[in-house]
Model the fold of this input.
Amino acid sequence: MKITSNSGSVIINLKNDLTKLKAEPGTRLAAVISLGILDQRIWSNKGSKDINGKKLTPKYSKGYIYKRKKYNRGKSTTVILSLTGDMNNQYNVVALGGDAYGLGWDGIGAYDRSGVSNQAKRNWLEALYKTTIFWLSDKEIKAVMIDVEKHVAKILG
Done:
């Protein structure tokens, strides 16, 4: 019995895929790293920030402040977008087709429990705060690319 292996071609294909991965920022690895960066900025329980790292200025009504107190969120007016539970929990890496990936809401996660589109909530929040929230800044994009390059270099050895 003769045993053969295609490990040589697998390694070559893997190296080609990783080289392509390094050159194309729209790949899953970059999206996953981006998700980690955005998670820290957008969904922080210390206060959500916009694309420039500026904390969001509260736009709460007196009724909502009362509601926050009722749900044990204290008197703080700090904007914490993670309290939009469904929107936060469903924000993820989504396939855009082919080798392209992005961040957002897809499939079941596209809508919250009440049937409201998370994309519509995103648009509403960015209009309310008059700033970009759900996108990477140039500084964050550079950080993603540095991280991707480190991962690729480590894999390629």
Observations:
- The first strand starts at residue 92 and ends at 97.
- The chain has six helices and two strands.
- The two ends are 34 Å apart (CA to CA).
